[in-house]
Amino acid sequence: MIELADYLKTRRSSLSMSLEAPGPDEAQLKDMLTIASRVPDHGKLAPWRFVLWTPDARKTMHQDLTKLLVAKPDMPEAGKKQQGTNKLLHGPCVVAVISKSSNHPKIPQWEQILSAGAVCQNMLMAANAHGFEAQWLTAWYIYDKDASSILQLEQGEAVAGIIHIGSCSTPKKERPRPELGDIYSIRES
Ligand SMILES: Cc1cc2nc3c(=O)[nH]c(=O)nc-3n(C[C@H](O)[C@H](O)[C@H](O)COP(=O)(O)O)c2cc1C
């Protein structure tokens, strides 16, 4: 077993289009979701939820989102957006992390949204812990209000991440990272 610090120093996502079967079984997925939900959450609001998008649901969503794209001929970069939509069809397991932040008297909405981001990151690491690869995606349709019924979002909800999980034997290349000196400073007074 690799040390946690070594894992954190070297972890990487895999491209969703490189993810193949097997994906997690039900018990593995439930364990991953349990891990993912163990995040800092000011006020214990649990301002997020998970939805497993099955292959059949993804096919339905893909059809409906494609129709929506066609119905919006003025949409810029429609071809790229269709490619983003097509990613839905690929891979053994896709889980949406839905942020459900609300106007709370004490906990700012920003903090609730940040907590949903932490859930997404935990989900990637939980997938790795179970021996799977994963990637956190977003897409045009999570920002399009006309798509919210296709995504079955309630009022005030937003998709924080579309987490693709599966297996991948392709070695991962290193990705440039910020120099610590560029992002770290010390304030002394
Ligand atoms: C909120 C969010 C949305 C992202 N959406 C996409 C996306 O739509 N397509 C994509 O290729 N990468 C997207 N990424 C980037 C990848 O998930 C990931 O950062 C990248 O592949 C490298 O990550 P790594 O440091 O875990 O290897 C997104 C990242 C974040 C945080």
Please characterize this protein's 3D structure.
The chain is α+β, with helices and mostly antiparallel strands. The protein has one domain: NADH Oxidase (3-Layer(aba) Sandwich). It contains six helices and four strands, in the order H-H-E-H-H-E-H-E-E-H. The protein has helices spanning 4-10, 26-36, 55-70, 78-86, 109-129, 180-183; strands at 48-53, 93-99, 133-137, 158-166. It has a four-stranded antiparallel sheet with strand order 1-2-4-3. Helix 2 (26-36) runs antiparallel to helix 5 (109-129) and helix 3 (55-70) runs antiparallel to helix 4. The radius of gyration is 18 Å and the shape is globular. The N and C termini lie far apart (43 Å). The chain binds flavin mononucleotide. Residues 12-13, 135-139, 161, 175 line the site of flavin mononucleotide (FMN). Flavin mononucleotide (FMN) binds at residues 12-13, 135-139, 161, 175.
Task: Describe the structure using short key phrases.
alpha+beta, binds flavin mononucleotide
